[in-house]
Each structure stands twice: as C-alpha cells, then as structure tokens.
Amino acid sequence: MNSKRRFFLLIIGAVVLFLISYLTAISKTLTLRKQYRSLEKEAFLNKDVSLQFQVISKKQVYYDSILQTMNLTDTSLENNFLKTLNAESKKGQLKLKTFNTPHLFLSDDAKYVSYDFTLEGDFVNMLKLLHKIEIGGTFGVITHLDFKKETDFRTRKKSLTSRVLIQSVQ
Asked: Residue 103 pairs with which residues in a beta bridge?
C-alpha cells in the first residue's frame, strides 16, 4: 500500500468514525442540552410562583374591598346602579321618579349602555347625588342633564325635576 491510499483510508475512516460517534453520542447530548435549557427557562419563570401568588391574593383582597365600598355585589350592573341610586337619593331627601330600562347600542366595536332616570327634589342635593354617582361609582359619565321647574296647580307647589342620562362603555 502506498502512502496516498493509506491517507485516503485514514480520512474515510475518520469521517465514518465521526458519523458513528455523532449518531450515538453527540446528537443525544445536543437534544439533552436543548431540554436542559428549556427546563432552566421554565424554572426561572416558576421561581417566584409563591411570591406571585401572594401578590395576586393581595390584589384580590384589595379589589374585593373596593367592591365592598362601592356596595357592589354579584348581581347585574343595572341592579347595583339602581340600589346605589335609591340609597343616595334617600340620604339626600330626593325622590326617584322614573328609572327606565337601559339602552344598549354598539359603536366603533364598543358596547355602550345608557341609563335614563328622573329625580325630584332640591337642586343642591341633586348635584351632590349626581357627583357621588359619577365620581364615586363606576357607573359611567353623565351625558345629559335637564332641569325643569314644575308647578302642581292643585297644591300650588313648585318642584324641581331633573332628567339624567348616564352612559358607560362595556
């Protein structure tokens, strides 16, 4: 055998040996390395699970307290609004004359709900009530407010009524 043939067989043998070693050991090592890195990332993400759980439970307690202060329960928003409106109108010595069914409409991929109701009573107390509803609750924004001074001709009493439209986005 001459030296060129030996060199050629040596190269072919090295390539075959490399392929065999790749198929048996190196490929398995690379797949295990990928698994190790993915598990390492997962462990890093799950490292602070107990801390995240504590933060979430504190947020839940906080949001429950907010719902408690706004006197909201699991019933519908309309019932909560009506309950709040009745309670606040009794505090301000106002009379809730009408509360119409909410009007729903869609615009620009958003759902709008409008509440229409009429109050009767003192001007200052009405303003206080409307301020509490708009600022204190999450019921929406006052979009229309109409005050009318009406006279009852039988009793000759004058009264102030206001028609209010509150709109919220859902």
From this structure: 114
Rg (CA), the chain: 37
- Per residue in 24-34, pLDDT (tens digit) is 877 788 889 99
d(CA 39, CA 43): 6
Place of tokens 């039988």: 154
Q: Tokens 């009264």 map to which residue?
A: 159
Distance from C-alpha of 159 to C-alpha of 96, rounded to nearest angstrom: 13
Buried b (16+ CB within 10 A) or exposed e, 96-115: beebeebeeeeeeeeebbbb
pTM of model > 0.70 = no
Q: How would you classify residue 16: left for phi > 0, otherwise alpha for psi between -120 and 50, otherwise beta?
A: alpha
Distance of CA 125 to the CA centre of its chain: 33
> Is the separation of the CB atoms in 81 and 139 below 8 Å?
yes
